[in-house]
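Much of what follows relies on a compact textual record of a protein's fold. A record is reproduced here so that you can trace the correspondence yourselves:

. . .
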Amino acid sequence: MDCAFRGTSWVPPSPALRLGPSHLLPKLRFSKLKPSSVRKRVVVSRASGSEEKDSGNGFSAAPSKVFVEETIGAEYGEGFETFRMDGPLKVDVDYLNDKLQECFLQRIRHAMKPDEAFGLIFSWDNVVADTRSLKLDAWRQLACEEGRDISSDSHTQRAILHTAADRVLQKVLCWTEEENELERFKSRLSELYYENLLNLEAPVEGLKEWLDAIYTVGIPTAVVSCLDRRHMLEALERMGLSKYFQAIVSEEDGMESIAHRFLSAAVKLDRKPSKCIVFEDDPRGITAAHNCTMMAVALIGAHPAYELVQADLAVASFSELSVINLRRLFAHKGSSFMDLQKQIIEKSPPKRKLMTDTIF
């Protein structure tokens, strides 16, 4: 698959029979972008959703999803549609688990190097980057510009971090009910967020050391976010994480839910969803991962440990993880009572019955 980031010392093996991007998701293919300087005007126009085009790359702006509460997705096998030459194709969890099977050569390679059989998917928010502080700073700056105050109590702080901007402005802060004012506040809030993003230079503590260990053993990784691809690439470059991610799922991929982004990442990594592990800090993301038949590792921080009990593994920091932890997640994976199972039909011929003859 075409990936913007691929290590020079390791290239994932290409299976002989697989569901390539040309047959499954042409929409997911992306070309390598040329590095360009960051200009504040572009950040403002992209965040606000205006139709202004940058003269440097001619890329039109799109509305930001940073302060929108996204749906979880993939409930009861729900998938998303992609288009091929012969018509639309619905891609869901079962379809990908069936089509992204390992070929014979891949099975041999993974038998010798079992860690390469996994795919790791990192959520951008509070797992790769501390976006919690970016959002809080954007709200405080907006309040300062408007001459308003934001309460420091835990309920308000939690609401502005995990609730859609519309509801925060109308129900929590009670700033306005008028549609024009709401749009103006949301537009300015997104502008402030993207401006603060330009100053982000350090990843979450312990992440780089963890990615170094993963990179050494050759496990493919992806990062998913609702940010646009250009700003994702630039932020990863500033944090020194560019070489670690073989795939990126961004706003341009057009995914409508959290689970759809995870499935898109699995396709780009060429790994079955059931062989992927998601690193999340939000209970909604953990639910989306399980809906996709993926394992989930929770990072305690933005949410307390008791809200992350549904995760397969919860850690306080990346320093607590080791590669052996990933193997143990799948060590006891098997069928349980009441799980849906395919009926196995016996195709072998019936055995001959032994007959005893009595000789008189």
Q: What stands out?
A: Residues 1-63, 335-344 have pLDDT under 50 and may be disordered. The CA atoms of residues 115 and 327 lie 7 Å apart. DSSP finds twelve helices and eight strands in the chain.
